[in-house]
């Protein structure tokens, strides 16, 4: 069952999983490490980059509502679908609308929540929403228009004691095969895949 990045790290902390993906942007502008340091002050954990990936506005094909930027989703005729609280996408979005001084209640659909990028893209594809924030890969997969907004670092986080068990996966991240497969996905960049991020 998919959970957001924050819940994933909490589950990892509680021993409910062996590894967690994370794309949490801290107020400092740093991805993941401030959250990992906060949640695991007493544990030896590793942070390894899986990929960089592009997020932005996913829009109906040919963009019939002429949406150009984040502030356009506050227009009364635009229906938005949001991501779940605790997801990296939602954290980025909430920071961005605060920066733009857009109150959440001005966004038609702010409380309409889905759990995955694919669910958000499906909502736009089916006409349930005019716009959603999500991955370029999900927009491409659903035949949607896409306006890129930012590139994020998506990391894998694991306690060092799980390293031996997970070594086949960690070794695979270093292969040309993995990079080739990842680069087939629209909006994914494997240039830093497998790099260890220092805490």
CATH class of the largest domain: Alpha Beta
- The number of strands is 8
Please tell me what the overall shape is. Answer: globular
Give me the Rg, rounded. Answer: 17 Å
Q: What order do the helices and strands follow? A: HEHEEHEHEHEHHEE
First and last CA, distance: 28 Å
Full CATH superfamily name of the largest domain:
Periplasmic binding protein-like II
Ranges where pLDDT stays below 50 over 5 or more residues in a row are none
| Major β-sheet profile | 8 strands, mixed
Can you characterise this structure?
With 199 residues, this protein is an alpha+beta fold. It folds into two domains: 5-52 and 151-197, no CATH class; 54-150, Periplasmic binding protein-like II (D-Maltodextrin-Binding Protein, domain 2, 3-Layer(aba) Sandwich), CATH 3.40.190.10. It is built from seven helices and eight strands; from the N terminus they run αβαββαβαβαβααββ. The protein has helices at residues 5-13, 33-39, 88-99, 117-125, 136-141, 167-172, 176-183, and strands at residues 20-22, 45-59, 80-83, 113-114, 131-135, 145-159, 188-189, 196-197. Strands 1, 2, 3, 4, 5, 6, 7 and 8 form an eight-stranded mixed β-sheet that branches. The model has no long low-confidence stretch (mean pLDDT 95).
Helix and strand arrangement:
Elements: H1 5-13, E1 20-22, H2 33-39, E2 45-59, E3 80-83, H3 88-99, E4 113-114, H4 117-125, E5 131-135, H5 136-141, E6 145-159, H6 167-172, H7 176-183, E7 188-189, E8 196-197
Parallel strand pairs: 3-4, 3-5
Antiparallel strand pairs: 1-6, 2-5, 2-6, 2-7, 2-8
């Amino acid at each position: 069952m998919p959970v957001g990045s924050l819940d994933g790290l909490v589950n990892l902390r509680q021993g409910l999983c062996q590894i967690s993906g994370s794309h949490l942007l801290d107020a400092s502008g740093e991805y993941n490490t401030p959250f990992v340091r906060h949640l695991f002050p007493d544990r030896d954990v590793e942070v390894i980059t899986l990929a960089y990936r592009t997020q932005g506005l996913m829009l109906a094909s040919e963009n019939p509502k002429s949406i150009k930027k984040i502030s356009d989703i506050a227009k009364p005729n635009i229906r938005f679908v949001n991501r779940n609280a605790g997801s990296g996408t939602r954290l980025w979005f909430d920071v961005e609308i605060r920066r733009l001084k857009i109150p959440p209640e001005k966004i038609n659909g702010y409380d309409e929540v889905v759990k995955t990028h694919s669910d958000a893209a499906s909502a736009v594809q089916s006409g349930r929403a005019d716009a959603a924030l999500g991955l370029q890969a999900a927009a491409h997969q659903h035949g949607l228009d896409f306006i890129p907004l930012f590139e994020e670092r998506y990391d894998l986080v694991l306690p060092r004691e799980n390293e031996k068990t997970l070594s086949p996966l960690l070794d695979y991240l270093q292969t040309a095969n993995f990079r080739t497969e990842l680069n087939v996905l629209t909006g994914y960049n494997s240039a830093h895949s497998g790099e260890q991020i220092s805490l």
